Recover the amino acids of this structure.
């Protein structure tokens, strides 16, 4: 219970930072300076108005200075990150394994909301996530996969884990890039952004090739079904609507990730 509470508090704090990244990275702004400010009136936010979840509730969702409504995305990201961290740390305890999955959860949440809001998947999170996933695979062994199937007798467990991570990152994203290139050749227009390809590389670095393929299939199905329903309900133009595919990849990757987490310690 105590470990889950620690995870929740850490997740709320990281969620607050993710909100900064979601707003600033697509605009090429520093996530360090200046301090948090209201995008409407540009006044700095006092520390007591920047407490995750609590400040939003106390302020009733509005800026103290100008009264502009604070987007619901802010408390949602904080709450979701807090819950994800609490689950991972509560299940796995305090250690490298929990750290890996918390980093993965934070990356997927940040990328999902950035794509939903701005239709941009920042390189800092995609390439940075890929590097983090490969690096963590050195110390946190990945689940059995295709690399272990063929090379388990030749490589040590550590290098098999790194191989799983690298193969998941580059083969999975390569397949998605090939699909996008084929679509462009046939339809003569962009059907897939490179940001989605780079995001799938980050997913693969954490989940391996099998988990990446599962994410790609589930994300494609969810994006197609929910996207079509949204277009019908809002009466948007099907040919011009830009689907936030990264959002669907991110949330389905989280589901696949939870299924991979070993529940026993």
């Amino acid at each position: 219970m105590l470990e889950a509470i620690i995870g929740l508090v850490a997740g709320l704090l990281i969620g607050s930072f993710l909100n900064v990244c979601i707003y600033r990275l697509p605009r090429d702004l520093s996530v360090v300076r200046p301090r948090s400010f209201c995008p409407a009136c540009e006044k700095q936010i006092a520390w007591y108005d920047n407490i995750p979840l609590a400040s939003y509730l106390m302020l009733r969702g509005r800026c103290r200075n100008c009264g502009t409504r604070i987007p619901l995305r802010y408390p949602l990201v904080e709450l979701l990150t807090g819950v994800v961290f609490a689950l991972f740390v509560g299940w796995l305890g305090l250690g490298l394994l929990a750290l890996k999955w918390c980093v993965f959860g934070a990356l997927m949440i940040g990328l999902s909301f950035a794509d939903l809001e701005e239709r941009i998947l920042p390189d800092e999170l995609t390439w940075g996530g890929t590097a983090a996933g490969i690096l963590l695979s050195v110390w946190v062994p990945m689940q059995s996969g295709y690399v272990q199937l063929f090379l388990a007798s030749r490589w040590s467990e550590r290098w098999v884990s790194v191989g799983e991570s690298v193969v998941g990152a580059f083969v999975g994203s390569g397949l998605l890039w090939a699909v996008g290139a084929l679509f462009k050749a046939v339809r003569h227009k962009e059907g897939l952004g490179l940001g989605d390809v780079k995001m799938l590389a980050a997913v693969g670095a954490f989940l391996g090739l099998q988990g990446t393929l599962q994410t790609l299939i589930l994300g494609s199905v969810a994006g197609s079904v929910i996207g079509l329903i949204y277009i019908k309900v809002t009466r948007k133009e099907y040919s011009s609507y830009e689907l936030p595919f990264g959002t669907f990849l991110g949330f389905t990757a989280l589901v696949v990730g939870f299924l991979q987490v070993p529940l026993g310690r």
Q: What stands out?
A: The chain has a mean pLDDT of 88. The chain has two domains: 1-94, 122-265. The longest helix spans residues 194-234. The CA atoms of residues 196 and 246 lie 6 Å apart.
